[in-house]
Structure formats: C-alpha cells, structure tokens
Amino acid sequence: MSNKKLRRVGLSQELCDRLSRHQIVNCQDFLGLSPLELMKVTGLSYGGVQELLYMVSRACAPQMQTAYDIKMRRSAELSPAFLSTTLSALDKALHGGVACGSLTEITGPPGCGKTQFCIMMSVLATLPTNMGGLEGTVVYIDTESAFTAERLVEIAESRFPLYFNTEEKLLLISSKVHLHRELSCEAVLQRLESLEEEIISKGVKLVIVDSIASVVRKEFDPQLQGNIKERNKFLAKQASLLKYLAEEFSLPVPDQI
Ligand SMILES: Nc1ncnc2c1ncn2[C@@H]1O[C@H](COP(=O)(O)OP(=O)(O)O)[C@@H](O)[C@H]1O
Ligand SMILES: [Mg+2]
C-alpha cells in the first residue's frame, strides 16, 4: 500500500528522520522521486538508492500469494477470526460474528439500527477476551454526528450490568472509543490514510465508518454527468484503504452503507 509509512518498511531510523525533513514520509512520497533526487536527499550512491527503491516497492506492492498461503496464514494467526455480535442468530448467519481481517458492509433502510449496532460493536471490542471481546480500543469515524458517548455508556450498562458495575469501568470504556467526526469524502479519505499509526499506538482492534453513504449522498448527485465516475472512484479508494487496514492489522471493519 503506497501510503505505508517508511518507518514500517525496514529503513533505518536515521534515514527515516532525514527523509521526513524533506516531507518524504510514506512509500508514495519516496517512490515518486527520481533516483537522482533520492541520491541528493539521502546522500547515498546510485546503487544504494536502487537497493532502497527495490526494498520500498517490495514492501508496498501487493505480493503474489497462493490460496494455500492465505489459508495457512489465517489458521496460524493468534488473533480471533471473528468478533461475536452476541446476537446468536446473526452470529450463526455470519459463521461466528463480524470477521476480523476483512471489511463488513452493514446495509439497511434509515432507522433500522445500523448506528446502534456499530455502537454496540464498539462496546464488545473493548471487552476482555474472556468475555468474547478483543480487549482493544476502537476508532469510530462518524460522518453523521450520530454517535453519542451517552448512548455508548447506556448500551454498555444495559448489555453487561455485572461487568460495567462501577463508574470507573464506564469511564474507561468511553476513553477507549476514539471518535473522529469527518463530514466530507476528502476528510474521510485523509483520516483513513493517516490511521495506521493510531492503530498501532493506541491498540485499535476495531475500525468503524458510520456512514460512507451519507458523505457520498451529500457530495455526489447521481443526476449530474461525471458524478457516478467520481463517486465510484471515491468508494473504490475508501474500500481499498479499509481492506488494507483490516488485513494488515487483522481488524474487523464494519462500514455502513
Ligand atoms: N439513544 C437511543 N435510545 C434508544 N433508541 C434509540 C436511540 N437512538 C436511536 N434509537 C433508535 O434505534 C433505532 C435505530 O436507529 P439508528 O441505529 O440510528 O438507525 P440507522 O443508523 O440504521 O439509520 C431507531 O428506531 C431509533 O429510534
Ligand atoms: Mg446511522
């Protein structure tokens, strides 16, 4: 993935610091420069720069894998394969819950409960693993200003009264859900592009986008010529960013339509 940070592709700290002083922070910034420009910035020889270019492009280009590799990698993963929804019929239909390491779309008419479901999944992801949770934090990207901390606490208290029996536990859960209000397509994309570091540093185990449809509806009128193409471009880009994050960090990523 071209927005992968150079620090994560095996370059030395010193080299990363030097590059970041020239606003070269991710693979895309690096690969967009010519060998000559890179020689100037890094102070390396032509051969040294070629080696780096090879290393960086290998790190961000999707590698060929066989179906067998994927199957073996999945079965060797220590993280759980699903985050249970705690709704037995839904878990059964989903073969265990919302899949970790992949993108799940939640669709339905307005008012059917998509946002309530996402808030409930946020509670579940913060629970200890012995209660079926992921013991992590959550990134909640809210494009409709629909999320409220009060509702999160209310759902936590009513679903797990024995666990959330103190004020501290309720405060702790609200500090584990990191809310980003992004009100345009561009802002959503920018947030997704910069999420990698937050996922690592804050121990994020669930990423939610609630909802993609509302920003798309606001910005792309399907009646106008050219809009469908632009809309599809945005949807494809955000889906590929979310898929990358889900696969790279083995996260469940519900994305509301
Ligand atoms: N704070 C709340 N307490 C109780 N019910 C709520 C609350 N907020 C929303 N609801 C109800 O939950 C239902 C689903 O709402 P919501 O999840 O926002 O729908 P969607 O995201 O699918 O449009 C609605 O019928 C709404 O009245
Ligand atoms: Mg909603």
Describe the structure.
There is one protein chain. This protein is α/β, with parallel strands linked by helices. It contains 13 helices and 7 strands. The mean pLDDT is 91. Bound molecules: adenosine-5'-diphosphate and magnesium ion. The site of magnesium ion has 6 residues, from helix 7.
Distance linking N and C termini: 24 Å
Number of strands: 7
Low-confidence stretches: none
Small-molecule components bound = adenosine-5'-diphosphate, magnesium ion
- Mean of the pLDDT scores? 91
Order of helices and strands: HHHHHEHEEHEHHEHHEHHE
| Structure classification | alpha/beta
| Basic shape | globular
Beta-strand residue fraction:
5-15%
Helical residue percent band: 40-55%
Largest sheet: 3 strands, parallel
Global Rg: 21 Å
Number of helical segments with 4 or more residues:
13
Q: Largest sheet, order of strands side by side?
A: 5-4-6
Summary keywords:
single chain, 257 residues, alpha/beta, three-stranded parallel sheet, two-stranded antiparallel ribbon, 13 helices, 7 strands, globular, binds adenosine-5'-diphosphate, binds magnesium ion, double-stranded DNA binding, four-way junction DNA binding
